[in-house]
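dumping this here so i dont lose it
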């Protein structure tokens, strides 16, 4: 009898003492943590995509190939506008390119793993693309530094199924002036949109045409 009473009291006191912390229903954190940590480690090892760029090659194009000794260090997706000026709004005036402004997001992993759908335009920008003057594109990228370039070569973008025309694919080469990064060459590939209207008829003085492109950055090791 006494034993039963004692056990009942003990059981009650255990129930009572358990009440203030119902978040931990009978599980010891000391026991719960190690298996959890092990599971995370194993899961990451087995499922993380390999995002290295060492063997990633450009989509087929006829631009001059990257120079020997350079490494592909970043593929960024740019989203912004190609800008043009119009002298007036008549059909005899043609739009003149004055540069582009685009936000750059890190697409290295998405391209390396062939998972382009995972590129999120809303993700944190890694840098900006703009023009110093109408012939000097600039890329300012966190962790890489600033690069000012000149256009070396251009080829027409592949035809779109719907007949629309995208801005050309380009090879740009870095110039010493204004460059703080190790980036030596930048390719603009996989363009979408950005092409000027055929004439200035009905256009404003500055025409901004939305575009997207992949920018491939090649840098020297040091
Ligand atoms: C890249 O390709 C080379 C040559 O085919 C190969 O030896 C190397 O393991 C590859 N590297 C990676 C990270 O896939
Ligand atoms: C080009 O267009 C962007 C908007 O995308 C604007 O911020 C920028 O000032 C324009 N640049 C010029 C030179 O008009
Ligand atoms: C519009 O600009 C074009 C190109 O500069 C010029 O040839 C044309 O005479 C201009 N037209 C008008 C109406 O000002
Ligand atoms: C881009 O993302 C990769 C991982 O996919 C990372 O290793 C690299 O440092 C990033 N580059 C920049 C410039 O943020």
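and the seq i came up w/
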């Amino acid at each position: 009898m006494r034993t039963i009473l004692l056990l009942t009291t003990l059981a009650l006191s255990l129930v009572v003492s358990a009440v203030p912390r119902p978040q931990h229903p009978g599980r010891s954190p000391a026991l719960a943590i190690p298996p959890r940590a092990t599971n995370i480690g194993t899961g990451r090892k087995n499922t993380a995509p390999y995002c290295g760029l060492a063997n990633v090659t450009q989509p087929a194009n006829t631009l001059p190939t990257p120079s020997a000794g350079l490494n592909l260090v970043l593929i960024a997706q740019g989203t912004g506008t190609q800008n043009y000026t119009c002298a007036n709004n008549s059909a005899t005036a043609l739009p003149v390119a004055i540069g582009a402004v685009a936000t750059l997001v890190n697409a290295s992993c998405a391209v390396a793993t062939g998972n382009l759908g995972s590129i999120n335009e809303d993700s944190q920008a890694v840098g900006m693309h703009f023009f110093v003057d109408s012939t000097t594109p600039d890329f300012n990228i966190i962790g890489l530094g600033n690069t000012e370039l000149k256009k070396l070569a251009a080829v027409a973008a592949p035809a779109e199924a719907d007949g629309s025309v995208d801005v050309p694919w380009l090879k740009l080469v870095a110039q010493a002036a204004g460059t703080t990064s190790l980036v030596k060459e930048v390719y603009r590939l996989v363009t979408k949109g950005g092409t000027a209207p055929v004439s200035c008829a009905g256009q404003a003085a500055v025409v901004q045409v939305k575009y997207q492109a992949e920018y491939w950055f090649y840098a020297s090791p040091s």
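The two ends are 84 Å apart (CA to CA).
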